[in-house]
């Protein structure tokens, strides 16, 4: 239909797609639902490397998600590739290494413009010049909780940005 709003898609990207990005995907999906945008915005996650393709989220990531009322039990890891850049509107990376890996996949400036550090949407992180979410994989449950809190702090900024993007799309 001509007056149907266009969809907007986000992909959250970390290293292996079993720790940070499944948590990020779950948080953003929940926030999008709360914002009433689930009919217009989709979220996926992927990793820059293929070490864990097909695996479930790390049990510590699943635990921290559950402790916040989110379920990532059905998650299965996949790899982000150049085709993803063609399909998504916004790519949220967790650290500068991810940004560099994603930039290498970009075909043009439009692809490059899609790639952002997730914490760049958190004004406090920007003010502190602390834009990376550390990999909790070699840590403990506390490190996963820190990653969760950092993603959660950026989520309102992501939602505001997505609302702005949707407002500029033709109906």
Attribute tags:
7 helices; alpha/beta; 171 residues
Question: What would your notes on this structure say?
Answer:
The chain has 171 residues and is α/β, with parallel strands linked by helices. The chain has seven helices and four strands; from the N terminus they run βαβααβααβαα. It has a four-stranded parallel β-sheet, sandwiched between helices. The chain is globular and about 45 Å long.
Strand share of the residues? 5-15%
Measured between the Cα atoms of the first and last residue, the distance is: 10 Å
H/I helix tally: 7
Shape assignment: globular
Please state the structural category.
Answer: alpha/beta
Biggest sheet character: 4 strands, parallel
H and E string: EHEHHEHHEHH
Helix content: 40-55%
Gyration radius, rounded: 15 Å
Number of strands: 4
Major sheet strand order: 2-1-3-4
Low-confidence stretches: 1-5
What's the rounded overall pLDDT mean?
94
Please write out the topology.
Blueprint: E1 8-14, H1 20-34, E2 41-47, H2 59-67, H3 82-87, E3 90-93, H4 96-105, H5 109-114, E4 115-117, H6 123-127, H7 141-168
Parallel strand pairs: 1-2, 1-3, 3-4
Helix pairs in contact: 1-2, 1-7, 2-7
Brief summary of the model shown:
By secondary structure, the protein is an alpha/beta fold. Helix content is 46%, strand content 12%.
């Amino acid at each position: 239909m001509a007056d149907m709003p266009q969809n907007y898609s986000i992909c959250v990207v970390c290293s292996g797609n079993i720790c940070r990005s499944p948590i990020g995907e779950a948080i953003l999906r929940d926030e999008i639902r709360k914002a009433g945008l689930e009919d217009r915005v989709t979220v996926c996650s992927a990793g820059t490397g293929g070490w864990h393709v097909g695996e479930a989220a790390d049990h510590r990531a699943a635990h921290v998600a559950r402790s916040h009322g989110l379920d990532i039990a059905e998650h299965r890891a996949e790899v982000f590739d150049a085709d993803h850049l063609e399909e998504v509107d916004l790519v949220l990376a967790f650290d500068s290494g991810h940004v560099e890996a994603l930039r290498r996949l970009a075909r043009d400036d439009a692809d490059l413009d899609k790639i952002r550090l997730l914490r760049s949407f958190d004004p406090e992180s920007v003010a502190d010049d602390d834009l990376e979410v550390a990999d909790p994989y070699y840590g403990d449950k506390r490190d996963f909780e820190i990653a969760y809190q950092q993603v959660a702090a950026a989520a309102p900024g992501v939602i505001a940005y997505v609302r702005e993007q949707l407002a500029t799309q033709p109906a």
